[in-house]
Amino acid sequence: MSNVIIVGGSVIGFGAALALADQGHRVRILERSTDEPPSTVDSAATWHRPTVPQFLQSHAFASLGCNLLRDRARDVYDGLRAAGAGEVNLADYPPPMLGGITRRPEDDDLRMVLSRRSTFELVLRERALARPGVSVRTGATVRGLVASGNRVTGVRLADGETIEADLVVDATGRKTAADTWLADADLPGRDVTSESCKIVYYTRYYRQRSERPPGPLNRGFGAGGLWDHYTAVLFLGDNGTFSISLGVLPEDTQMKGLREEEAFTAAVRATPLLAGWVAPGNSEPISPVYSMGSLDNSLRLPVEGQPLVEGFFPIGDALCTTNPAYGRGVSLGLQEAFLLADLLAEHPEPGETQAREFVARSTRLVRPWFEEAVMNDRGRAGLWEATVNGRQPQRPPAGVVTFGTAVAAASQDEEVWRRVANVMMMLKPPSALYADDEIRARVGKVLSGGPPPQLPGASRADLLAAVSADLVAK
Ligand SMILES: Cc1cc2nc3c(=O)[nH]c(=O)nc-3n(C[C@H](O)[C@H](O)[C@H](O)COP(=O)(O)OP(=O)(O)OC[C@H]3O[C@@H](n4cnc5c(N)ncnc54)[C@H](O)[C@@H]3O)c2cc1C
């Protein structure tokens, strides 16, 4: 069994610790933060983590990740439920215009746990640390790799201490410094492909006060819509909480006021789909507004034709990031963690075969999601830029399935709905939606009757008025 160092003690670092410990490996997690981690659901919700700003942003956990926990780490799944997380199946929430669906056995997999990121990570961390052989050292900032030839044999900390290991896992997130570590250690570098998601998020948390959901739950795990200049999504959380996230273009300066609580509330009230949730008596805010931008779709892969680095495995955001709007990051990272654990069972010896297989399998997993995110973000940002700048938006060419056209058609065609749900939940690859002749024909047929009715969002003028009224009042 291997002696593994995981650099980065966050959601995917702990997910990997758990996956590897269950195969008998000894795991040491090195985390730069010096903070004492919280031990309760409430204290976790306000944990200030400067190195993980997305910790305070809305999270939905796709079925891929939820099913992995149910099947391979049942104690985490049960622990989440015990900590107050809910559970939904998307097949219980088909679009109303379908008038119900005919359930299939495979629909049972469209399951999601409803939890704040903070509760999710709290439970995952506690369950990982309960496993034999898993330890975490905080205040340990990795600054470099120790290598022999092309093989990584350990890490170097900021104070110069070196720690040896059979394998090093990079789970340091979207700001990983591993490209510098590789260069400093004279190891082969990587191709980094990166493109802005062109979105900034504003998020606020609430506690529900009404007995029943005070608005429609058109997404099952919450409610939301994507309009021609913004998106607004409500995420049900654990213990009667929910969060609302608004997304706009980063250069949409007139929307900067959304970081103010009053303007944020005004914008939610101007969005009919969500207004009921923040009506007096239905809920109370339990957080300020948290904003986050500078988001990229990114992918780090070995340079083709160069030798591979052995004994070094990037996972989670350190390997690939996709626009958070698609809710894929945690599921992808957990899948990579279990993929690595399975690979080590098949190829326990660090070396070229192990490295090659990891690159092949992890690339096969993440590349389609990365490419889908880039494609969808280009389309959505083009639409938003046109609306914000008063231009006529370009519509996708006829016969091309986009996320927007597929979601629109899903409201009237059960097969399209099922495919959209399976791809959104990552149970089927993007090609099952965008490159499938039957789906293309069905989407074309629905849309040939004209665009389906839009979900009730705010017009550009209404949203501007809501946000600027608050600024004028100041
Ligand atoms: C706005 C937003 C909303 C999101 N919503 C969703 C969602 O709905 N669903 C979903 O699945 N995903 C979502 N994501 C993505 C998800 O948050 C990430 O995929 C996930 O946090 C990645 O986890 P990670 O462990 O790889 O990295 P991180 O959570 O970023 O953690 C990296 C860790 O490494 C530590 N570290 C960094 N450098 C060092 C070093 N040199 N030495 C030691 N430690 C180090 C950091 O302190 C940190 O603890 C969202 C992301 C954003 C930005």
Structural commentary:
It is a single chain. It contains 15 helices and 19 strands. The protein has 474 residues and is α+β, with helices and mostly antiparallel strands. Among the domains are: 212 residues, FAD/NAD(P)-binding domain (3-Layer(bba) Sandwich); 95 residues, Alpha-Beta Plaits, CATH 3.30.70. Strands 11, 12, 13, 14, 15 and 16 form a six-stranded antiparallel sheet that branches. Strand 6 and strand 7 form a beta hairpin. The protein is globular, with a radius of gyration of 23 Å. It starts with a strand and ends with a helix. The site of flavin-adenine dinucleotide (FAD) has 38 residues, from helix 1, strand 2 and helix 9.
Q: Any guess at the CATH architecture of the domain at 3-59 and 116-195 and 296-370?
A: 3-Layer(bba) Sandwich
Which structural class should the secondary elements be placed in? Answer: alpha+beta
**First and last CA, distance:** 63 Å
**Quaternary class:** single chain
By DSSP, the count of extended strands is 19
List all distinct small molecules, including ions and cofactors, that are bound in this structure.
flavin-adenine dinucleotide
Helix count from the secondary structure assignment: 15
Measured by DSSP, the beta-strand proportion falls in 15-25%
Query: How would you sum up the global shape?
Result: globular
Radius of gyration: 23 Å
The amount of helix comes to 25-40%
In round numbers, the mean pLDDT is: 95
* The CATH class of the domain at 3-59 and 116-195 and 296-370: Alpha Beta
Q: Mind telling me the CATH superfamily name of the domain at 3-59 and 116-195 and 296-370?
A: FAD/NAD(P)-binding domain
Q: Under CATH, the topology of the domain at 3-59 and 116-195 and 296-370 is which?
A: FAD/NAD(P)-binding domain
Note the main sheet. 6 strands, antiparallel
Unreliable stretches, pLDDT < 50, 5 or more residues? none
